[in-house]
Amino acid sequence: MFENIEIFLNDNIHGSGATWIVTAILLAGIAIVAVASYYLAKALLWLVERAVKKSPTEWDDDIINKRFTRAVSQLAPALMVSWLLPHFFGDNAEEVRWLDIVTSFYILWAIVRIVLIFIDNLYEGLARRPNTSPYAIKGVFQMFKLIFFGIGVIVGLSILIGKTPLAILGALGAAATVLMLVFKDTILGLVASVQLTANKMVQRGDWISCPGHNANGVVEDVSLTTVKVRNFDNSITTIPPYSLVSESFQNFQAMVESAGRRVSRAFYVDATTVRFCSSAELNALKDEGFLDGIELPAGGKIVNLMLLRLYLEQHLRRDPRVNPDLTLMVRQLPPTPTGLPIELYFFTHTTKWVEFEHIQSDIFNHVYATIERFGLRVFQSPSGTDILRLSPTCDAPAADSAR
């Protein structure tokens, strides 16, 4: 059929420039057929898209979407042109050699684009699934996109210079050192992304702290070259993935998902106020309910600091916001020049930051309000007003005005 069309045109078109006229007519016919094939493919793919939307599964909706079908339909005219050119002009027709090269480039670009869109759709489908969305899989998909894009570049160079892809790969192998320097960050990011994903070191939504990069916030994205962290001041910090593998960082996600968040804070007691309690003081504490549920040691004198420690432990166990199933204690730390530290060590039921801070503040407010009932004082470094009060050259009104 193709030969008959070409013979018919050559027999009926004569004169100068007849060859160019025949070529133009054939190219116009090929263009019309190519445009028709595009709309035909678009119509067929529209039917496929409708059928996919009506199917009960969700994976086909994620992969075969409008963007994917549009890319596939754009491949149809190029395939039609590539198929018709040899039939009308032969394999070595110089007048359409340029068109053959352009068509080959277009087919290559369309195929690479279809593959990249397929990878994007597959990643977005996995990112929407609850069981796979937390994992740092974006870097893996970016790696596949980079590989296919590199293959497309190599094949494109082979079409342009008329060499086989293997010959181009051999030439690139000689420049492997230079390529490794150029793509050093990408290669390191690729290896780090695989390690982060395989070892479940960090996932999207995790709260991490990386002091070396001034990062303290929630991970928003883990890609091939960067880990994006939104800090609690809403600033964004980007960290190379290989830094998280080679350096240390703290992941708080296990704490967020656990049964409680730890409080480990000390207050400092003035050591000069630690003493034995008198019988009257013990009776006053019992009358006010500070010793309810506390078994006092039989015989011997009782130290007021021990009573405070026992009372605070009892108070923490009674607080419904404190988790009594985890470690709970009030302990005395080694003395310091700034006082005798008493540490409250316990876990709250909640792990939410605001609620946690409120609970912690309420408990220590109670500590500061009740410590004097045990005859103790919180140690505090002297202020300027305290020094003025001790100065013999300053009278009371001067001290009051300074205060």
List keywords for this structure.
3-stranded antiparallel sheet, disordered C terminus, 8 strands, alpha+beta
What does this entry look like structurally?
Helix content is 57%, strand content 11%. It is of the alpha+beta class. The radius of gyration is 39 Å and the shape is elongated.
Tally of helical runs: 17
- pLDDT < 50 runs, ≥5 residues: 396-403
Helix content: 55-70%
User: Outline, from the CA principal axes?
Assistant: elongated
Cα-atom Rg, whole angstroms? Answer: 39 Å
The structural class is alpha+beta
Q: Which sheet architecture does the biggest sheet show?
A: 5 strands, antiparallel
For the termini, the CA-CA separation is 108 Å
Mean pLDDT: 79
Quantity of strands, as a count: 8
Strand proportion, as a percent range, falls in 5-15%
SSE string, helices as H and strands as E? HHHHHHHHHHEEEEHEHEHHEEHHH
Spatial ordering of strands, largest sheet = 4-3-2-1-5
